[in-house]
Amino acid sequence: MSSWWQTGIVYQIYPRSFQDSNGDGVGDLPGITQRLDYLQNLGVDAVWISPIYPSPMADFGYDVSDYCGIHPLFGTMADMDRLIQAAHDHNLRLILDFVPNHTSNEHPWFLESRSARDNPKRDWYIWRDPAPDGGPPTNWLSRFDGQSAWEWDAQTEQYYLHSFLAEQPDVNWRNPDLRAAMLDVLRFWFDKGVDGFRIDVSYRAMKDAQFRDNPPNPNWREGMDPAKRVIETYTRNTPDIEHFNRWLREVADEYDDRVLIGEINLPPHELVKHYGRSLNGLHLPFNFNLIFTPWDAAAVRDLIEMYEAALPHGAWPNWVLGNHDQHRIASRVGTAQARVAMLLLLTLRGTPTLYYGDELGLLDGEIAPEQVQDPWEKMVPGLGLGRDPERTPMPWTSAVNAGFCPPNIIPWLPLNADSVIVNVASQQDDPDSMLRFTQKLIQLRRETAALNQGRYHSLPARDGVLAFARQHGAQTIWVVLNMTGEAKSWTLPDDVGETAVLLTTASNPPIITGNALPLHPNEGVILAV
Ligand code: NOJ
Question: Per-residue pLDDT for 34 more than 90?
Fold first, then answer.
């Protein structure tokens, strides 16, 4: 029997940008609750919301100052309780974001920790003496600006580690009291009925115990992401990360049917270690490899085969095409390929995670320099690293501010310029829209065991076409994707009998003649065999 988190689809909401219910230009929890009917109609199974906890918002909530509270911008704990209940009433699971690598520098734990060297919570964070030359203890770099990840504290005369902003000090998971406090956070939310966690940069939680310098990156050049000047051998994916994964898993296993999804940016052979030696690690180490693979049929096919081959026996795969840290998929592959991308995401073997708005084919928003919010863009402007473009508000209607917030309010980020045309209401009215296509695709995936749990194997294809089969019992489905902007033809295997087109991204189903399946430019097709 498969679990909900295996056959289901996860939908990621960036809460600031989904639905504002109180007219302050920022999305909130009651806004999400209002939109549960939409999510249920879309057909997804679980909703993951990025952090909603109290936070000074230096990194828009990924700097948590109280893990068991709700930031007033997003609502109250009563709003959260209502959301959990309402989600379950809609047959939707709710997944929260757990940020275990760092807290806010305003978290009471850190305030205590930095107050004195002999404070009982000193060791809850990573404090070190200067190197012999008086400088930072290691060459470790902050992920955002590529400057030293060590911040000097003049009062106690030691450095503390921050893998991201200086306002995000890293905690010390080797300290048993910190560990116990963090694990109790999971229990707090599980007890409230939350169905799982997405774990922020889980693979960074353990740092090298010997504090060795990271080796320089020989491929780094001026103009590249400054944090990539070193290879992160000692600051992420260290061998003892398996302990961290197991500590979390043991807590999840105290409850029925919960899921742990790790944010891990690694190639397949490294990524799969996070399932644990006997699958006692994370249920789903996020697989971001499609995001970083060229949008090319041969490259994607190689990736799928490599990932499938790397998976440990019994480990359940997963795929991601977009999130709040990556430019929108429609901007990356082009509007014409957006449906092909959705078709791929929702027909590969494993749990798909769909980023809000991708079901509309949303493009990156245009952010003028004075509108920039993301600290990353502010620190290293102009390198294209800023994440505001993919965080613009969800367009619901063609009204001013698209029904996201009242027309007379300035939303925290601007709506996309095309939101008068590209919005939920107009796409719902248009049978040929991306939204209606996505709904049909999700429906087909839900009712087709071969798609939501069947085996995968590649089918012969060339020349920009990707083809694969999904199989469950007697049911066989073929997926054929033209990943180019030119018309193509795919040759069906000789011994195939009757086939039926179940879905196409084009307006009319293709007519198969003999063994030839003609494909329009940018067309994806699902066939029953
Ligand atoms: C990964 C999150 O997805 C990103 O948005 C955040 O800035 C960093 N982790 C730091 O928490």
Answer: yes
